[in-house]
Amino acid sequence: MEIVMSVLVGFLFMAAVYLMLSKSLLRIIIGTAVLSHGAHLLLLTMGGFGGTKPPVVAYGVTEAEYADPLPQALILTAIVISFAVTSFFLVLAYRAYQELGTDNVNLMRGTEDYD
Amino acid sequence: MINMPLFPILIPLIFAIILIFFPKNIRAQRLVTLAGLVFTVGAAIFLLVDVYTNGVQAVTLGSWPAPFGITLVSDLFSVLLVTTASVVTLFAVLYSFESIRTEREKFYYYPAVLFLLTGVNGAFTTGDIFNLFVFIEVLLMASYMLIVLGGEKAQLRESIKYILVNIISSALFVSAVAYLYSVTGTLSMADLAVKVPEIEAVGIMTVIAVLFLVVFGFKGAIFPLYFWLPGSYHAPPIPVLALFGALLTKVGVYSIIRTYTLFFTMNVDFTHELLAILSILTVVAGCIGALAYFDVKKIIVYNIIIAVGVILFGASQLNEAGVEGAVFYLVHDMVIKAALFFLVGIVAVLFGTSDLRKMGGLMKTRPALGWFYLIAAFALAGIPPLSGFPGKLLIVQGGFEGPHFWGSIFILVTSLLVLMSVIRIFLYAFWGEPVETIQVKPSVYRRLFVPAAGMVVLAIVLGVGAELFMPFVSGAGEVLLNPSIYIDAVLKE
């Protein structure tokens, strides 16, 4: 299972890099969302898939069956943060499109002399 | 008071939340922000004295014992930075009263500043590596807001790049935390310091250490990863720029110093050698940038990069002089960068441009500004009685005592280039043929000048009173070099 997940994480990272290298701002944002999800899955995978029982101390649950709760707690935090950042980025992209008249990042290059 | 380390984090947070309720009443916003920052500075100073007299203070949140719960740890290193950050923010807010426009003040500028301080203080204080990620996200969220606030074309353009770089580095941060957790099974820094030396697979720990260096290098702008900084820091208005320059990159630098002294010490030959080489390259790259531009903001922005290199070189030596120098220089740099940005901001306001070639002759009309700028420039370059000198001296000494004596030579040589880059501003803006300046009301000018002069005075005090200040710095260096002090304070029964 860990191997399958690792391959999936690698695929997500690859897709994210491909999307982020494109010119359209919207594709870049989707790329960042995919990238953060890849990172979250990696975090879950690295915690190990040892346990089958829920991460609650209950009668009859041995240490071997007990799922590690920490990666899940960490992912929850990381997902909330990445949602917030992605939504902010989407709003910013819309505003930038209104102001700059383009969503092509190649046309957004500029020095301080150019406005 | 056992919960003292929480106060510099909670006070700005609570005041920021209060401020959200009445955004249009600027007078009240200003007063409440000032009150909040004064309380924060007071709490930070109280904490500084407390840590100095009673040793490292640790708070376990929810009373979960250390390796399981999140710990907030205040040692002398972190509390020095918390105090400096709070003081710098106080001055930046005083400076913003005149220089930030009312439209920005009405759109939650002050809450964003306070949230930024919450994140910065939290990142300095936390003793858990995932919690560090969370606090860094808090301060990044506030910085995203500050960088776009105003919605000018250049701001929108640059903030997209800034956010993109930070999202990628955050994703890498999560990945690095994942690897660290899978190898060690813990995320508490003190527990990591115990467990990392026991791990036999030194190779994989080295990979993780370098991955963390990449992540913090993005935040702290070290050599190949500083590319986003000059553009992004050019866009926002001066007080925001001063806050970013003084606080944001320093969080990355702090994280590198903390992780590379506390637990990534298993393969010093490779990791710290790499850090030393990268920091020298950072200094060189920063110097090239600082000399290349004719824009006052750009010159100071590149000086941020130089300072990052100098500090990290001191930390990479892992000897007493080098680490103490890094701590001292870090505090000095936060103060002096804010001072320089304030002064340069006044210059830019007076001429209506930040292009050096369109300036001249300010010494005749504003002599006080000129003298204060000259003092700040000398302090930045490390001319003896001022605040840059003791830190740089210790860092250079650390380099000569350590394995990288060539690095010290680079730092000494580039000090001259730093001096040249800032004196160039002095030559163009203050000497030469007078150019017509924009008429600024004396009261407005005074309110801009007083916080700037205050920061310069602070830099002078830090340099002249270095002897008073050294016990704190050497205490911080001691904690950094003997992780057992930190571990004992956190993992105590």
From TrEMBL, chain A:
Spans traversing the lipid bilayer: 6-21, 28-50, 70-94
The record's listing under Gene3D superfamilies reads: 1.10.287.3510
The answer, when asked if Cell membrane is one of the entry's keywords, is yes
- Superkingdom, taxonomy of origin: Bacteria
List keywords of the entry alphabetically.
Answer: Cell membrane, Membrane, Transmembrane, Transmembrane helix
Task: Indicate where this protein is primarily found.
Answer: membrane
Family annotation (Pfam families): Oxidored_q2 (PF00420)
Q: Entry's InterPro entries? A: CPA3_antiporter_subunitC, NUOK/Mnh_C1-like
How this chain sits in the membrane, per its record, is: Multi-pass membrane protein
Cell compartments where the protein resides: Cell membrane
A GO-annotated cellular component: plasma membrane
The similarity annotation says: Belongs to the CPA3 antiporters (TC 2.A.63) subunit C family.
Protein name stated in the entry: Na(+)/H(+) antiporter subunit C
UniProtKB/TrEMBL annotation, chain B:
Annotated membrane topology is: Multi-pass membrane protein
Q: Which domain of life is it from?
A: Bacteria
Q: Any idea where this protein resides?
A: Cell membrane; Membrane
Q: Cite the NADH:quinone oxidoreductase/Mrp antiporter transmembrane domain residue spans from the record.
A: 128-417
Q: Which GO terms describe its biological process?
A: ATP synthesis coupled electron transport
What molecular functions are annotated in GO for this chain?
antiporter activity; NADH dehydrogenase (ubiquinone) activity
The UniProt entry, under InterPro entries, shows: CPA3_Na-H_Antiporter_D, NADH_UbQ_OxRdtase, ND/Mrp_TM
| One annotated Gene Ontology cellular component of this protein | plasma membrane
Looking at the Swiss-Prot or TrEMBL record, what is one Pfam family this protein matches? Proton_antipo_M
Which keywords does this Swiss-Prot/TrEMBL entry list? Answer: Antiport, Cell membrane, Membrane, Transmembrane, Transmembrane helix, Transport
Q: Report TM segments.
A: 6-22, 31-49, 69-95, 107-124, 130-150, 162-181, 201-228, 240-262, 274-293, 300-318, 338-356, 368-386, 406-427, 448-473
Its family?
Belongs to the CPA3 antiporters (TC 2.A.63) subunit D family.
Q: What is this protein called?
A: Na+/H+ antiporter subunit D
User: What is the scientific name of the source organism?
Assistant: Planococcus lenghuensis
